[in-house]
Amino acid sequence: MKTDIEIAQSAEIKPITEIAAGLGIDYADTEPYGHYKAKLNIQETGKKPGKLILVTAINPTPAGEGKTTVSTGLAQAMAKINKKAVLALREPSLGPVFGIKGGAAGGGYSQVIPMEDINLHFTGDLHAVTAANNLICAITDNHIQQGNQLNIDPRRILIKRCLDMNDRALRHTVIGLGGKPNGIPREDGFNITVASEIMAILCLAGNLSDLKRRIGNILVAYGTAGEPVFAKDLNVQGAAAALLKDAFKPNLVQTLENTPVLIHGGPFANIAHGCNSLRATRLALELGDWCITEAGFGSDLGAEKFFDIKCRMGDLKPNCAVIVATVRALKYGGGVPKADLGKENVDAVVKGAENLRVHIENIAKFGVPAIVALNRFHTDTQQELDAVIRICEQLNTPVSLTEVFAKGGNGGIDLAEKVCRICEGESGFAPLYDVDLSIREKINIIATEIYRADGADFTSAADKAIAEIEKLGMGNVPVCIAKTQYSLSDNPLLTGKPEGFRITVRDVRIAAGAGFAVVYTGDIMTMPGLPKAPAALTIDCDDGGRITGLF
User: Fold this and answer.
1) How far is CA 483 from the centre of its chain?
2) How many CB atoms are closer than 10 A to CB 367?
């Protein structure tokens, strides 16, 4: 059987100008990066937007769920039934590409291509985000070095440097060593680029003016008297925006079946808001009659943030949500070891399906109709599949067996047809909470309603941080909770549907430029580490430049 990269490298790929022309995009508005990818230099067209489909999932497991694969397969299937669909996805980070996941552009016969380019550097957007973020850090330290007119307290600098790579050694650092010419010694650290506020700003800004305004509103530090210091006080927002002017343009590529795809922005959903750029989603809604997008990890993370942050800020109204699940993942959640997932175990499927039940209920709380995409594996038995179907029927939720990994768009036609029928009705979408509630209230609503926790506990550091945010008058924003993706709780070991737990909030930071408060729970890290056997060890490149081992 061919690997993902072998399938991708043997695809019949069309020139990107041809894909753009199929969307009605003038050649003058297309900025090719080689033959098969391009930046789009166009604003929103004013056309009536199409239907918006969100693809989410159950909590991820080592067995895999295939959310991007299903998203891609659904877009291809829409074309099979003569629907004009545009797929809108996030850009992969080099962290997981070289870490534990490998490639991140779908799989099998439902992939986005050129997958090697998309996974490795792409059009350089994440590098531009890294440069803009680190420019602000450098200007901040230089300001202190050159006289510190703003009286910045070196102990209270909030912005961290970033790098698009998993590097645990950079989580906590000391900078400025080596004497006076090298700056003021202080504690510092790195975030992974996709967790940076600049990345969130890139994904939520409406235009370049808004991008620059948001950068200026980044709370960089506090002064010695406790006063806030923003990026605009350092007058760095213009230079940072200049670094991002090309990165702000959405990227156009295609699927294996030549369906158009906009890939733009890449925040993680466990430590950031987990959605592709608002600009790309709006553009996809106008270029096609159907926009299919996804939000990272399960409904407790990506979907909640998609609804409560992105849709709220972008005035989006999703028409349907697709919840991706697999028999293998449900069995894992039901207590079956990974090595035994190929063996039939209907009881474990039923037990693990309690996690699926929660995600179905979560989507309903936002007033959005849902369908379960049961991503089929060759080891699934009919008895196991029937068990999941019965559970979905009990919850009055339609379900579709999908085989897009093996069959491409043809394996998702049933899903596409059912999604279209669902979207004939009106969406009753509404965010989960009112932003004018206190930060504590908003956190507790998400903890109890979405995670099913008994409540949230706040450390003294979190209490102090919330008090400071509200003193600044910035408490009336959405909250972006950083939490493990592997559990509904903040403990990654509590799989399935844990009960009798509480969420521990250890810190809260205001991302004033992005427009939300970041809430850190449990032991979540904003700079991941590499696993014992990183995916990078299997990736190679031959003398002709052909890449191998990329998933």
Assistant:
1) 13
2) 16
Q: For residues 240 and 212, what is the distance between their CA atoms, to the nearest angstrom?
A: 8
From residue 102, alpha-carbon distances to 380, 526, 531, 537, 550 in Å are: 24, 19, 12, 10, 6
Asked whether the CA dihedral 383, 388, 394, 397 is positive or negative, the reply is negative
| Beta strands per DSSP E along 311-355 | 320-325
Q: What is the pLDDT of residue 459?
A: 98
pLDDT over 90 percentage in the chain: 93
Q: Coil, helix or strand for 252?
A: strand
CB neighbour list of residue 236: distance below 8 Å, 6 or more residues apart: 135, 136, 139, 215
Stretch (H or E) spanning 518: strand 516-521
Lowest mean pLDDT among 44-53, 128-137, 302-311, 507-516: 44-53
pLDDT for position 549:
86
Return the structure tokens found at 98. 């070289």
Question: What's residue 103's pLDDT?
Answer: 67
Q: Is the Cβ–Cβ distance between 69 and 110 less than 8 Å?
A: yes
Distance CA 417, CA 221 (A): 52
By C-alpha distance, which of 364, 351, 423, 446 is closest to 52? 423
Confidence of residue 65 (pLDDT cuts 50, 70, 90): confident
In tens, the pLDDT along 421-436 reads 999 988 899 999 999 9
Tokens read off for 71: 């998203």
